[in-house]
Amino acid sequence: MIIVTGAAGFIGSGLISRLNQEGFSNIIAVDDFSKIEKAENLEGKTIKERVERSSLFEWLDENNKDVEFIFHIGARTDTTEFDVNIFNELNLDYSKQIWEKCVAYQIPLVYASSAATYGLGELGYDDNESLIPQLKPLNPYGDSKNDFDIWALKQEKKPFFWVGLKFFNVYGPNEYHKGRMASVIFHAFNQIKATDKMKLFRSHNPDFKDGEQMRDFIYVKDLIEVCLFFMHHRKDSGIYNLGSGKARTFKDLVTNTFLAMDKTPDISYVDTPADIRDKYQYFTQANMSKLHAIGYTKPFHTLEEGVGEYVKDYLSSGSYL
């Protein structure tokens, strides 16, 4: 059996779809299933059992001998939430318990970290584990992810195989439920569909023109392929970046969304909200050499390929992965 936490969410549900394609059907889907807005993400997928998030550890104590792998994808990911207690409970403490069960029952683990741990990128975007304690995230979400990375690295007792993946800016199908936290492509598609126009944040940094703020955007299908690689690889434990390795501008992103919708780009700019202006990242780019060095060779989608497929095959029809 393979456990996927955050199973009804954006990345978790896509991962289950890919596992099903690979012939894995004994999936234990873990989530807070009271959130009915995510229910469609699991429709049509082959799942052995649904386990409520709060019941996982009791379930593991009873069924651990049958568990082959854990993907811990679930987390509170709202970067605008500032209640530290929520992140301590759902991201930090919950992850520690999963780790400890993986140690006790010798279960390999892949968990989701985040590029939010890098803050403003003062130390760059290298997945050098010696730098992790020096990173300065910009919000409680980033703090919770970095605090767990630091805790994991300090542990004398570790799962026999474990990997933390620092997800950069992920986009793709099954994010319909995410509201404000959905990707810019998702919001651009809906805004363009309604108005034939798109508004982006103005730059408040003299080093960047409006719309030329840059992010490392990664298509969710590429991220999932890396997860599967580690499930089969099961060596070279540690913390890895997971981005495309190539920063692109928000103007590029939205222009490609217009083109995928067969519309002429019409982009204007509004001030970045004052409450997030001093915490706004103007550039992120994953150094991906560590992953490539252990043998990962699959090419990532270009921004043009990823946006085109997402818009034409999923957003335009409301389809799910």
TrEMBL record:
Q: What are the alphabetically sorted keywords of the record?
A: Carbohydrate metabolism, Isomerase, NADP
How the cofactor is bound: the record states: Binds 1 NADP(+) per subunit.
Q: Which GO terms describe its biological process?
A: ADP-L-glycero-beta-D-manno-heptose biosynthetic process; carbohydrate metabolic process
According to its UniProt record, which cofactors does this protein need?
NADP(+)
**Catalytic activity as recorded in UniProt:** ADP-D-glycero-beta-D-manno-heptose = ADP-L-glycero-beta-D-manno-heptose
Q: In which pathway does it act?
A: Nucleotide-sugar biosynthesis; ADP-L-glycero-beta-D-manno-heptose biosynthesis; ADP-L-glycero-beta-D-manno-heptose from D-glycero-beta-D-manno-heptose 7-phosphate: step 4/4
Q: Where does NADP(+) bind?
A: F10, I11, D31, D32, K38, R53, I73, G74, A75, R76, T77, K145, V170, K178
The record's annotation in InterPro entries points to: Epimerase_deHydtase, Heptose_epim, NAD(P)-bd_dom_sf
What this chain does, per the record?
Catalyzes the interconversion between ADP-D-glycero-beta-D-manno-heptose and ADP-L-glycero-beta-D-manno-heptose via an epimerization at carbon 6 of the heptose.
- What PANTHER family does the annotation carry? ADP-L-GLYCERO-D-MANNO-HEPTOSE-6-EPIMERASE, NUCLEOSIDE-DIPHOSPHATE-SUGAR EPIMERASE
Protein name in UniProt:
ADP-L-glycero-D-manno-heptose-6-epimerase
Q: Which organism is it from?
A: Dyadobacter frigoris
